[in-house]
Specification:
Blueprint (H helix, E strand, L loop, with lengths): L1 H16 L11 H18 L9 H40 L5 E5 L2 E4 L4 E7 L5 E7 L5 E6 L6 E7 L12 E11 L2 E2 L2 E15 L2 E6 L2 E4 L6 E2 L1
Helix pairs in contact: 1-2, 2-3
Length: 225
């Protein structure tokens, strides 16, 4: 009798574990796991040994594990919906900046009709801030001394002339910065000015085309002008 009971139990358990596998209704992995678990649990309870019943603590533990798995699945769905919503909001925000000038990390400066613009993001106030402008070959064009400046984003303008006062041709130049407080060098980020030309969406999120720079994220924008 014992052998017959064990065979019946195994058959019922096997059937419960594979129940619903041919169902036409498509369910999520968490839903399928929940259905299998409940059917398996019910089958176990129906076919348990009356002289050695299942431990209530064990059943409670299994139910708690199922609840945790279900909760994690629902949390993932909620986070996915939140992420999609944030991406949509970022797209709208980025699109509104098309045609506006922004400051982003970079060392380029475009001289257009005798004017060029750049920026610096200072980690702290300084008593010395020097800008050095170079041409494409790296040759020195102009030194600009801005003196003491407070912490934060600072915009500066180049009149398009070299150190001798000669007007330079429009085009692309680069610049370096030297920031110091007393004898200590201060961390500073070079900022490049550019117009937002377009906005694209990819797997990484929203990316902007700024001047001659591509792949600029919203987090990189330090200032909107």
């Amino acid at each position: 009798m014992v052998t017959a009971t064990e065979s019946t139990d195994k058959t019922a358990l096997f059937a419960a574990m594979n129940a619903g596998s041919s169902s036409a209704t498509k369910k999520s992995a968490a839903e399928e796991t929940q259905d299998r678990f409940l059917k398996l649990l019910v089958t176990q309870m129906k076919n348990q040994d009356p002289l050695n019943p299942m431990d209530n603590a064990q059943v409670t533990s299994q139910m708690a594990q199922l609840s945790t798995v279900t909760g994690i699945d629902k949390l993932n769905i909620t986070l996915k919906a939140l992420s999609d919503s944030m991406t949509g909001n970022q797209s709208v925000q980025a699109a509104s900046m098309i045609g506006h000038g922004v400051m982003v990390p970079g060392e380029g400066i475009d001289l257009i009709q005798g004017s060029g613009f750049g920026g610096v993001d200072l980690a702290q106030s300084v008593d010395k801030l020097d800008i050095t402008i170079n041409d494409k070959s790296g040759a020195l064009i102009r030194n600009i001394q801005l003196g003491s400046q407070p912490a934060g984003v600072l915009n500066w303008q180049w009149d398009g002339r070299d150190n001798s006062g000669v007007d330079m041709a429009d085009g692309n130049y680069t610049f370096t910065i030297n920031a110091a407080q007393g004898s200590e060098k201060v961390d500073a980020t070079k900022l490049q000015f550019g117009m937002v030309n377009s906005v694209t969406m990819d797997k990484q999120g929203v990316a902007l085309s700024v001047g001659q720079l591509d792949g600029i994220t919203l987090e990189q924008i330090r200032q909107i002008l």
